[in-house]
Amino acid sequence: MKESSPVSGPPDARQANRMSGIFRPGLAFSGGIIAITFIALLFLAALACLLSKTPGRALYFYFVGPFRSAYSLGALLNGAIPLILGGLGVSVAMRAGSLNLGGEGQIYSGAFAATAAALALERFGFFGGLAAVCAGVFFAGAAASFSGFCKARWNTNELITSFLLSNALILIVNYLVNGPFLDPETNLQSTRKIAAGLRLPRFWPPADVSSALPVAVAAAAAVYFFLKETKLGYELRMAGANEMFARYGGINTRLNTVLAMFLSGAFYGLAGALAVFGTYYGTVKEFSSGLGWNGLAAALMADFNPLAVIPASLFLSWISTGAKIAMQNSDITFETASVVQSVIFFLATSAVLRGLFKKKGGL
């Protein structure tokens, strides 16, 4: 007798247990992830030897430069903040079976929405600032949830819709920053600065590290707890692991798709809002360039584990900060950081694809 297809009956126990082990301690530091980091560093060393006349000096400032002063270390930590939040946004979407490629536009538009709200509500002090942050978070979340809605309603590809909408948002915000909201008192292409009373306090002067750093770390812990310990988090994970099983169990997978994309965009929006309140104090034209992709790289390196996003973001920020310092003190260019990040993308994506093939094969 012909064996019945899994589609015709309830999912078996193996399908349900595919979720087990997703949050094992140390998952993101398995051999594959460590190998990706090691290969990326070897590739960086090889680039320095090929492109620099003084490779030893270039590598010294690349690897050690970010730790030579409090200011450089502060720059490293501050650069990791949007990557942590962006990596959390990617991780939430991926756990629910979606991928948000609109990070840059969502960071940028979230920052602008937070800036505009802060300028309008500055007379309300702390509550006005809090409302401004919420405005940035909600706007970016709404932009991402549109892609989730299109996927749930018409089965459109969220990669394409989130990416295209992100590009459109960047152009719109560029117009607003250069036009109606341009600050005439500065040479920068930027909006007016938010009120001093609304700015996050710095705890590592003269570096830009603000209280946004503990917020980002707390957000990672909150996402981990949400996905692992709550009913809604379980539903999101189950929908991402096996949509058919989730539907059979009564989970509204369409609603969860929209919700996951909203949360993903909301974290990107929070990254933009905190960049405004903690670093730039306004929206600088295209300040988010590269942040969305680097957040995705951090999530890939962490294997979409929220807690592992923190060290992955610190690693990527170390590479970026080291590239700037090496560029100032040697003949190596900043573009080497982008090359190394592309290697990380390639290796991490290959690992993800192998995992997907393994699941499809039932191994």
Describe this structure in words.
The protein has 363 residues and is mostly helical. The protein has a single domain, classed as ABC transporter involved in vitamin B12 uptake, BtuC (Orthogonal Bundle), CATH 1.10.3470. The chain has 14 helices and no strands. The protein has helices at residues 13-16, 31-51, 55-63, 70-95, 103-121, 125-154, 158-178, 212-229, 231-241, 243-248, 253-280, 291-301, 309-329, 335-360. α3 (55-63) packs across α13 (309-329), α5 (103-121) packs across α11 and α13 packs antiparallel against α14. It is globular. The protein starts with 12 loop residues before the first helix and ends with a helix. Residues 1-29 and 359-363 have low confidence and may be disordered.
Largest sheet: none
Distance between the termini: 25 Å
What is the total number of structural domains? 1
Helix content: 55-70%
- Summarize the helix and strand pattern as letters: HHHHHHHHHHHHHH
Number of strands: 0
Ranges where pLDDT stays below 50 over 5 or more residues in a row are 1-29, 359-363
List keywords for this structure.
363 residues; mainly alpha; ABC transporter involved in vitamin B12 uptake, BtuC; 69% helix; 0% strand; globular; disordered C terminus
